[in-house]
Amino acid sequence: MNPAPFRALTRVFPAAALLLVMTACTDESPPSSESVSPQASTAPGATTPTGRTTAMNIRLTLDGHHIDATLNDSPTARDFAAQLPLTLSLRDLNQAEKTADLPRKLSTSGAPEGADPEVGDLAYYAPWNQLATYYRDAPYATGLVILGHMADGGAEWLATADEITIEAAP
Q1: d(Cα 130, Cα 89) in Å, to the nearest integer?
Q2: How far apart are CA 142 and CA 52, in angstroms?
Q3: Residues forming a β-bridge with 144
Q4: For the segment 63-117, what is each residue's pLDDT rounded down to a tens digit?
Q5: Which residues, other chains included, contact 72 with Cβ-Cβ below 8 Å and sequence gap of 6+?
Q6: N or C terminus: which one in the chain shows less Cβ crowding within 10 Å?
Q7: Is the Cβ–Cβ distance between 114 and 98 less than 8 Å?
Q8: Is residue 61 classed as helix, strand or coil in its secondary structure?
């Protein structure tokens, strides 16, 4: 019988036992995969179909039609919410989105380099300081920050709208 493996085990076992005892004696538990990110106090947290955590319910008005939407919990979306209510003139871009100039630049602190928008997304296009709202599929764009998402069916009204009013949900 070769004693080398047993000598190695006798060196490793005390360290493993000590580690087990130390972790069992702490009051801290590991973070749960079900932990909830902080939410703004204006609305209960929810998750959009795309998995983006939402922080604030808003209402869009397009040609007299009210559309529910939610903003995500990002610094850029919170900065956008601070500007509400807004009424903006819309311009069509590439028969896929409507854009509007914002009154001031938004913070892009911690924002990704770009995004691949989905139909119904509300986004900030930082290079041109514009709100971008999507009624058709559009490609990834550098400088695009997703702000939130319209409720199902909302994007249909966007294609023909010339003006948008955005306010906190009543």
Answers
A1: 11
A2: 19
A3: 125
A4: 899 999 999 999 999 999 999 999 999 999 999 999 999 999 999 999 999 999 9
A5: 48, 52, 53, 54, 55, 146, 147, 148
A6: N
A7: no
A8: strand
CB atoms within 10 A of CB 152: 12
Tokens of 105: 């630049």
Collect contacts of 50-58 with beta carbons under 8 A, ≥24 apart. 50/118, 50/149, 52/146, 52/148, 52/149, 54/148, 54/149, 56/81, 56/148, 56/168, 56/169, 57/168, 57/169, 58/84, 58/148, 58/166, 58/167, 58/168, 58/169
What is the distance of C-alpha 29 from the center of its chain? 27
Which two tokens mark 120? Answer: 């119904």
Q: Answer whether 158's CB lies under 8 Å from 62's CB.
A: yes
C-beta separation of 98 from 91 below 8 A: yes
Closest by CA to 89, choosing from 5, 4, 162, 8, is: 162
Residues 6+ apart with CB under 8 A from 86: 102, 103, 164, 165, 166, 167
- 35-58 pLDDT tens trace: 323 333 333 344 444 444 557 999
Distance CA 59, CA 70 (A): 8
CA distance between the termini of the chain: 79
Tokens of 168: 């906190």
